[in-house]
Design goal:
The chain is of the alpha/beta class. The chain is about 50% helix and about 10% strand. The chain has helices at about 20-25, 35-40, 40-55, 70-80, 95-110, 110-120, 185-200, 210-230, 235-255, 260-275, 275-280, 285-290, 295-305, 310-325, 340-350, 360-370; strands at about 10, 30, 60, 90-95, 135, 150-155, 160-165, 170-175. The radius of gyration is 20 Å and the shape is globular.
């Protein structure tokens, strides 16, 4: 037996952003987006478009950094609480960090302490708020527009938390590839690699099911084919559309499985070495693919449909794919000392995401020794 569920109303296509006014439907809303400094004026223009379609927001939250932490989120929640009218919906316009922050604000309802207590103690889930979220991604990679969790960082204690609640599934996702036009190459590549990691990690996952697997295969093939082309032709609307669709499909896949070992390894790199998330969670994919080969017939079959009949050659192809995008598969190039790598793998395997991995520690150790 298996089960697949995703309650988000997804609307996809060039120009779908223009339907935002109908989706907001007159509700008093909080707009969560980036400050102008993070978008070179892009988000100021997008904010004007939002206001023209949906009316002036009850409050706007702009202090969103790359990895939302308790310090910044406390300020965000104070701003949220200053709304001129009771907030009836949240419009999250931006990348993964905006989606994460919006979900925290939806759960906090202006009081971050209730979310922090829940994350630190595992209790109080019934006290979390349930403000509806309208997710409008401006990158192609996060998949957060169709998931029910958010990553929250405690940069003082150097810890990472995952806020999870079914009510945090966005009410609606408006995925408009045109909003990703103009993204610089580095962001395009990093977010695209995040989508690839979501797809592959939902395959070598104890929670995989036939629907998530089918979505993941399409997503992985599309990223492998389209991302290198897009990296050399950033203005291509057709390639932006392919990558946006791949990211969405990967999000729909891991919305049911969650991520696995590569993401578990990534958190240390992001927290301690400042490695961008998409790179931190993708550089180890070739190693993980080699380690997982032969562990599960269904996973092997899916990987062969993506990479071809020879999985060893497929892992080499994946390594070459990353190299062509400027990403090294060598952990030392990302700040990890060889002596620490084995310990980090053990820590990752012991975490929630690591426990989703279908592979064996012995295979990973053998990969390290190779």
């Amino acid at each position: 037996m298996w089960r697949y569920r995703n309650p988000v109303d997804v609307k996809f296509g060039a120009g779908v952003f223009e339907t935002l006014g109908k989706v907001v439907a007159g509700r008093a809303y909080c707009l969560v987006t980036y400050d102008d400094a993070n978008g070179g004026g892009v988000f100021a223009e997008l904010t004007r478009r939002v206001t023209a379609m949906a009316g002036a927001p009850a409050v706007t939250v702009r202090n969103i950094g790359p990895n939302p932490d308790f310090i910044g989120l406390a300020e965000s929640c104070r701003t949220y609480a200053s709304a001129t009218r009771p907030v009836e919906a949240i419009v999250a316009l931006g990348g993964g960090s905006v989606m994460d922050a919006a979900k925290v604000m939806a759960a906090a309802s202006g009081d971050l302490d209730r979310v922090r207590r829940h994350l630190e103690t595992g209790t109080g889930g019934e006290e979390l708020g349930r403000t509806p979220i309208i997710a409008v991604p401006t990158t192609a990679g996060t998949g957060s527009e169709v998931t029910s969790w958010a990553t929250v960082w405690d940069t003082e204690a150097m810890k990472k938390y995952s806020l999870t609640h079914d009510s945090l599934h966005p009410e609606t996702a408006l995925v408009d590839p045109l909003l990703t036009l103009g993204l610089p190459r580095a962001v395009t590549v990093s977010t695209g690699l995040d989508a690839l990691s979501h797809a592959l990690e939902s395959l070598w996952n104890v929670n995989a099911n036939p629907v998530s697997g089918a979505l993941a295969e399409v997503a992985a093939r599309e990223v492998l084919d389209a991302l290198p082309l897009l990296a050399d032709d950033l203005a291509s609307e057709a390639l932006r559309t392919r990558l946006a669709r791949a990211s969405l499909f990967a999000g729909l896949a891991f919305s049911n499985t969650r991520t696995a070992l590569a993401h578990a390894l990534s958190y240390h790199l992001t927290l301690h070495h400042g490695v961008p998330h998409g790179i931190a969670c993708s550089f180890s994919l070739p190693m993980v693919m080699r380690a997982v080969a032969g562990c599960d017939p269904a996973c092997d079959a899916a990987l062969r449909r993506i990479f071809g009949p020879d999985l060893a050659a497929g892992a080499a192809r994946l390594e070459s794919f990353l190299k062509k995008l400027g990403i090294s598969s060598d952990a030392t190039d990302h700040g990890i000392k060889p002596a620490d790598w084995s310990r980090l793998i053990d820590d990752a395997l012991a975490g929630d995401r690591g426990k989703n991995f279908i592979g064996r520690r012995e295979s990973l150790v053998a990969e390290l020794a190779a």
